[in-house]
Amino acid sequence: MPVTQTLEADALRRQDPELAEILLGELDRQSTTLQLIAAENFTSPAVLTALGSPLANKYAEGYPGARHHGGCEIVDVAERLAVDRAKALFGADHANVQSHSGSSAVLAAYAALLRPGDTVLAMGLSFGGHLTHGSPANFSGRWFDFVGYGVEAETGLIDYEQVHTLARAHRPKAIVCGSICYPRHIDYAAFREIADRVGAYLIADAAHPIGLVAGGAAPNPVPYADVVCATTHKVLRGPRGGMILCGSELAERVDRAVFPFTQGGAQMHTIAAKAVAFGEAATPAFSAYAHQVVANARVLADELGDEGLAVITGGTDTHLLTVDPAPLGVDGRTARGRLAAAGMVLDCCALPHGDARGLRLGTAALTTQGMGEAEMARIAVLLAGVLREDIEAKKAREEVRELTGRFPPYPG
Ligand SMILES: Cc1ncc(COP(=O)(O)O)c(C=O)c1O
Question: Which residues bind (6S)-5,6,7,8-tetrahydrofolate (predicted)?
Fold first, then answer.
């Protein structure tokens, strides 16, 4: 059933029209603007149905077959299904699907492998590391001693020599590979080798590329990393949430690090929705989708380059790209504001050089809507025109409406 129909007919609209209007307003915003935020996507109606199901009522502390609450026999089946599907999808010995978010997954990975005060080597925040990779504003920066590696100022690529040098100098207990805005594949084998040389654990924070991994469009970190943390809501197109994959030797430590160490009751509606998303991600249609996401990102990068924006690393291997709009005479923050007014929603991000902010764009949501290379080329022209102020925001907004009208995320 189309999402709008469900909302319009449902109990919420009758009981709480004020809140229902807010939901419909957000649906309208998502449907009539371009979602270029690299971390976002449109889940299927089946995933939304699982999220809104009576499983939301169920308390289920613990794990299938060993719960602290009664009445878990049915939700146990849902969690086992999610675990089995995740293991099969990523070729992992063990999967924990209870993490409430990507950050909770990283917290649990640290809890499983580290002690407070341990040294951890991760991508520096000013180069694209996540908050959980050592921000002083986050538990990670408070409880662990983070050392940051960077990317080369010229190329924007990870300098594996530098990672190795820092690892030798600081002897970290763990090395984290993963980023919020690195557009290239990560060389997991190189990270594994460096970790082995210094006796460190390797944690892959694959929050961004895990959906591409599911679709066979990006390398799989599972054979290389001791622990893989991920989100389920980005390219993977599942509900908001996290997941941890590891070998059987770390399974018990990881499970205990999630519950009872860092979380309470599992959110069974979300776990059921994760199972639905893993089921979808195992299909040939999803593989085609993942490859199209990358093809679209490549076209968007090429066309934005042709329009004069500086494309960091010269392109992308993934669903995301980062660009510096400075050559068009506008800084990242101003650019984001101008584009928002034109109905193009995206984020600012770190650049490999200096303090200026760039723009991060992703193609996961647009591709779910059915857009392809032709639409990417059109979006690039529109985006650059708005930044140059050749095209008025109002005119661009009309073009965006026309485009989104042809590719509704939830056809009604
Ligand atoms: C690399 C990385 N790690 C962790 C996270 C955290 O995920 P969440 O926002 O679900 O906590 C993100 C989110 O964007 C991420 O990009």
Answer: 125, 129-131, 249
Residues 289 and 277 in one domain: no
Cβ 207 under 6 angstroms from ligand 1: yes
Q: Which of 317, 235, 267 is nearest to 99 (CA)?
A: 267
DSSP bridge partners of 205: 229
- The last residue of one of the domains, among 228, 259, 281, is 281
Q: What confidence tens digit (pLDDT) does each residue in 321-349 have?
A: 999 999 999 999 999 999 999 999 999 99
Asked if residue 101 has its Cβ within 6 Å of ligand 1, the reply is yes
pLDDT 10s digits, 289-331? 999 999 999 999 999 999 999 999 999 999 999 999 999 999 9
Distance between first and last Cα of the chain: 8
Whether residue 80 is found in the same domain as residue 153: yes
Catalytic residue, chosen from 132, 231, 368, 404, is 231
> How far is the C-alpha of 244 from the C-alpha of 231, rounded, in Å?
9
Range of the domain at 64: 54-281
User: What is the Å distance from ligand 1's center to 244 Cα?
Assistant: 13
Q: Is 274 in the pocket of ligand 1 (CB under 6 A)?
A: no
Instruction: Confirm if 328 and 309 have CB atoms less than 8 A apart.
Output: yes
Q: Are residues 157 and 205 in the same domain?
A: yes
Model-level pTM? Answer: 0.97
Our mutation pick for probing the ligand 1 site, out of 182, 231, 320, 349, counting the most ligand atoms within 8 A of Cβ, is 231
Domain count, the chain: 2
Same domain, 268 and 299: no
